[in-house]
Design brief:
The chain is an alpha+beta fold. It contains 2 helices and 10 strands. The protein has helices at about 35-45, 75-85, and strands at about 1-5, 15-20, 25-30, 45-50, 50-55, 65-70, 70-75, 90, 100, 110. The protein has a 5-stranded mixed β-sheet with strand order 8-5-6-10-9. A 3-stranded antiparallel β-sheet has the order 1-2-3, covered by helices on one side. The chain has a two-stranded antiparallel ribbon with strand order 4-7. The chain binds iron/sulfur cluster. The site of iron/sulfur cluster (SF4) has 11 residues, from helix 1.
Length: about 120
């Protein structure tokens, strides 16, 4: 198995190649060790931090920015969005307040990115 990708861990954006050789993963093109970790994870269990908004009542704006505290499996992102799109909160909300607890049983909370 072999996959080329761009490392998104830092703005350098190294073009890396990840190859499975037996039980080992060989990563090339990375300028630092974080690229190796990213490349292996991207091949075995790709995850992303989800940033989006939810409806809010009584706030300064109609939508409240939210994000997952940690990365969730990439394959669950659209299901997470379905859950989040059905959420409506009421002001006041403080930054860091939990908006959705343990989304889809991932163990990851969705929290407010700002107070409103
Ligand atoms: S490999 Fe290292 S230097 Fe290159 S983009 Fe990833 S984190 Fe940045």
């Amino acid at each position: 198995m072999n996959k080329e990708m761009i490392c998104i861990v830092c703005p350098m954006g190294c073009h890396i190649n990840v190859e499975k050789s037996g039980d080992e993963y060989v990563v090339t093109g990375n300028k630092c060790p974080r690229g190796k970790t990213y490349g292996i994870k991207e091949l075995t269990n790709p995850t992303r931090v989800l940033t989006t908004t939810v409806k809010i009542k009584g706030g300064l704006l109609n939508r409240l920015p939210v994000k997952t505290v940690d990365a969730v499996p990439k394959e669950l992102l659209s299901e997470c969005m379905k859950v989040i799109n059905n959420v409506e909160v009421t002001s006041p909300i403080k930054v860091g307040d939990i908006i959705v607890k343990d989304i889809l049983g991932t163990g990851v909370n969705v929290v407010a990115s700002r107070s409103m």
